[in-house]
Amino acid sequence: MTLLADPATYARGVPHAEFTRRRVADPVSWVEEPELIRHGDTGVRRHRGTGYWAVTTHAGVVEASRDPGTFSSAEKGAFLADPRTQADLERNRRLLVNMDDPAHARLRRTVSAAFTPRAVEPLRASVRAHADALVARVVRAGEVDAVAELAAELPLLVLADLLGMPYADRGLLFGWSNNLVGFDDPRYGGGQVEVYRRTFAEAFAYARELFAGRRRDPGDDLISRLVLAETDGRRLSDAELCQLWLLLVIAGNETTRHLVSGSLEALIDHPGERDRLVADPSLVPSAVEELLRWVTPIMQFRRTARRDTVLCGRRIAAGDKVILYYISANRDAAVFPDPDRLDLGRAPNPHLAFGTGPHFCLGAHLARLEAGELLSALLPHLPALRRAGPAERMRSTFMNAIVRLPVRFDTAAH
Ligand code: HEM
Questions:
Q1: Distance from the alpha carbon of residue 360 to the mean position of ligand 1, in angstroms
Q2: Angle made by CA atoms 228, 234, 239, in degrees to the nearest 5
Q3: Ligand 1 centroid vs 364 CA: distance in angstroms?
Q4: Ligand 1 atom with the shortest distance to the CA of 104
């Protein structure tokens, strides 16, 4: 029996067959959580979650996402793991993804202007320049880990531009977000609560210095805009700014990285589709959408039922945990004909990789821009791209993540 709630499952690959079985047999089905181990100050702690309703169809995920009055992000937060204490829950609620209205709408209004297509478009030239330089470097190197050298690098460079940070500090962003997102993976946090705490402390100390610098000497970067922005007549506090900053660091970094590495793997494994794209670069925009559907870098987010309700015919009680599986919704045959086929020209493509409803991803335009520019820069070299060793996947129930993808450019091949 595949355990959807066990991080170890995903180290072997996304359990698509299990999702398909559930979509067909029981679109909103109960999942027991396994016992997970955490290492805290007081020694090893075993923890078992409450169990949850897995929402696996496109219709189910859309319905719950668009009804925040019933399916709350703030009640217990938007992450699968239950907050351990009330204090943990209160802390989590300072993060945009873990808010409901009116707090959510208020904070989102302050940040969203920085992420509209108009605000993001001016970044295109610098994103393309970063992509060209990275591609030239890996092609020259011949054989590389595509995660470290390509997929991780582009979002870090773009984030450094966006947040007005020196490029030399991008390694810090990389380490912090690995420790927080890879909490269940022994290569990163490995369930060590201390690593988790230390990471927050270090990241926030760095951020506070950044804010102080921008208040003294504002530029035209996002941080300068955020420290000066006013909502309802007041500026954001340092604590609010820290949470927002960390969310951007993680959301803008891990997700795009996993989209790129998953896309490279998909293109290597589907040479017919790769050749179709190389022959017709006008397919890049639809290819980006299809790769978003195919990879679905964030596999799920959580909601908590605020009241007794019914979803896809299933009775859900007030307080129940509900997990919205975008990764499954994106393979729903009711919406995507032949869903297990990669079709880079697929249209329409109403995938849910960025979620839907009031929490729809703020960084969607930026992520699309980065993926599109990188794909365009890579096009002439794609026919030569080969695996140079087995891919390694992250132990995570949250991110569909490849952590190592050895590749080589087989120049003799084209
Ligand atoms: C391929 C890349 C990305 C994917 C797949 C992705 C996915 C998602 C998803 C599924 C949500 C919905 C959360 C929910 O419903 O609870 C979300 C929210 C969010 N994303 Fe992204 N994201 C990506 C890139 C980015 C980037 C580049 C940024 C910023 C630089 C970003 C910033 C955010 C923020 C701030 C939210 C919270 C919005 C809210 O709660 O109102 N994301 N993202």
A1: 7
A2: 75
A3: 7
A4: 41
Is the peptide bond between 348 and the residue preceding it cis, with omega within 30 degrees of 0?
A: yes
Beta strands at 309-311 and 314-316: parallel, antiparallel or unpaired: antiparallel
Structural tokens at position 213: 């610098």
Neighbours of 394 (CB within 10 A): 24
C-alpha closest to that of 260 among 364, 160, 150:
150
- The ranges assigned to domains in the chain are 7-413
Q: Quick one: CATH architecture of 7-413?
A: Orthogonal Bundle (1.10)
Residue nearest to atom 9 of ligand 1 (CA): 354
Closest CA to 236 of 223, 249, 248, 246: 223
As a whole number of angstroms, the distance between CA 261 and CA 374 comes to 11
Render pLDDT for 186-241 as a digit per residue (tens, 0 to 9).
Answer: 666 555 677 778 888 899 999 999 999 999 999 878 888 888 887 778 888 888 88
User: Are the C-beta atoms of 368 and 353 separated by less than 8 Å?
Assistant: no
**CB within 8 Å of 337: residues ≥ 6 apart:** none
The helix, strand and coil proportions of the chain, stated in percent and rounded to the nearest 5, come to 50, 15, 35
Using left for φ > 0, alpha for ψ between -120 and 50, and beta otherwise, residue 296 falls in: left
Q: What is the pLDDT of residues 313-334, one digit of tens each?
A: 999 999 999 999 999 999 999 9
CA distance 159 to 315: 43
Residue whose tokens read 């940070």: 165
Residue among 305, 303, 274 at smallest CA distance from 414: 274
DSSP 83: P
Which residues lie across from 325 on neighbouring strands?
300
State phi, psi for 377 to the nearest 5 degrees. Answer: -65, -30
Q: How far apart are CA 305 and CA 63, in angstroms?
A: 13
Q: Whose CA is nearest to atom 1 of ligand 1?
A: 256
Max intra-chain CA distance, the chain: 63
